[in-house]
Write a structure and sequence with these properties.
2 copies of one chain form a homodimer. The first copy, chain A, is an alpha/beta fold and 220 residues long. Chain A has one domain: Rossmann fold (3-Layer(aba) Sandwich). Chain A is built from 8 helices and 7 strands; from the N terminus they run H-E-H-E-H-E-H-E-E-H-H-E-H-E-H. In chain A, strands 3-2-4-1-5-6-7 form a 7-stranded parallel sheet, sandwiched between helices. In chain A, helix 1 packs parallel to helix 4 and helix 2 packs across helix 8. The longest helix of chain A is centred in the first third of the chain and has 26 residues. Chain A is globular, with a radius of gyration of 17 Å. Chains A and B meet through helix 1 and helix 5 of A and helix 1 and helix 5 of B.
């Protein structure tokens, strides 16, 4: 019975995710679902992306998902972008319904790119589509190279792996070659960008990746 | 309906957790449920705990929870302790049934302390009791000081917070005072130990904490 209930929940979620996706396509809003363990640097990445101006030609919005607090939303609102904060209370992931609700508070006609920052969790968010064009997973250097093998669905579902906090490489024994090899084992088409929000390494590359994917999807 | 189903699942889990706990008490096995984000250092902590011999007078066993792979179980088996590996496949946490099943493969009559290493996830494992005497949460320095506020249930349910990877303090801007203050805001009786598996800082303190709690519970 538990399995049947889970299947119903996922099917209902897929329906809502498809509706969201149709809405985003109609409005030409390119949507990226950012996922990672807690503390891998999702909010800091968005801060740097906005501060560096690598997407300065695009109108950007953010949906912030957290179990509790508006701390992350406040950090991004300070950078003068529209932010909708979702507090999931007990839910360990965002779902299609939450994103649909959050979008009613956004002016989609005046957005080109929407970032959805999921709840910090390397497991559950991968199971729930929200209508995004691409899922992007962040893995921070201190977390270790074995994570793609231990949490394969997340890396399998993502179009891009951002290896974050590369400034910490000298202080760990992680091998980036091993990270790349492990990620490719579960998803041999995944793109990989190394990035440090502290030094700025990779931020431009990340911006170019978004622009190229947006152009590939919308043609402009 | 979703809420009712969730409540049924949690109530059923509590029943199994209570049965496990009765079994552990009857066998005088002291059980610690280790939880954290992926990559916070649960397996490395157990390796160091065994290698340093801080619990050398106790017979130790480990139940390893991972979605996929036996990588962590193999690391610990190399240290000559009985290890049962659980692969949860899709489940984002361990539950009472999984621990009950795993215990059939352990000789509880010949164990004094059982470590349960949960799935790397700062959210869901906190909701599911497994029969443990204490929940212990690890928060690694690179994850940032805001985590107790953003994932409050995990810190609320835990008896002890281990702040791990303190050797990385010089390379981050985290304030341990802020971590402590945030943890106390959600749980003002939580114990806190700072620890580095790399330098060995705090490992003895951690061992003493376990011995004291075991003695407090079993009287020996």
């Amino acid at each position: 019975m538990k399995v049947q209930v889970l299947r119903d929940i996922l099917e209902f979620n897929d329906t809502l995710a498809d509706q969201n996706r149709s809405m985003f396509d109609a409005k030409k809003v390119f949507v990226i679902n950012l996922m990672s363990s807690p503390g891998a640097g999702k909010t800091t990445l968005l801060e740097r992306t906005l501060e560096e101006g690598v997407l300065r030609d695009y109108r950007i919005g953010v949906i912030e998902g957290d179990i509790q607090t508006t701390l992350d939303g406040e950090r991004l609102e300070a950078l003068n972008v529209p932010v909708v904060q979702i507090n999931t209370a007990v839910a360990c992931h965002l779902d299609g319904q939450m994103i649909s609700n959050a979008c009613t508070a956004l002016d989609l006609d005046n957005l080109d790119i929407l970032f959805i920052e999921n709840v910090g969790n390397l497991v559950c968010p991968a199971e729930f589509r929200v209508g995004e064009h691409h899922k992007v997973v962040l893995l921070s250097v201190p977390e270790g190279a074995d994570k793609p093998l231990k949490y394969p669905l997340m890396f399998h579902e993502s179009s891009l792996l951002l290896i974050t906090k590369t400034d910490m490489l000298p202080y760990t024994d992680i091998s980036l070659d091993t990270v790349r090899r492990n990620a490719m084992r579960v998803n041999n088409t995944i793109d990989i960008i190394e990035l440090s929000a502290k030094t700025g390494e990779g931020i431009t590359h990340w911006g170019e990746w978004i622009k190229a994917k947006r152009k590939a999807h919308f043609g402009t």
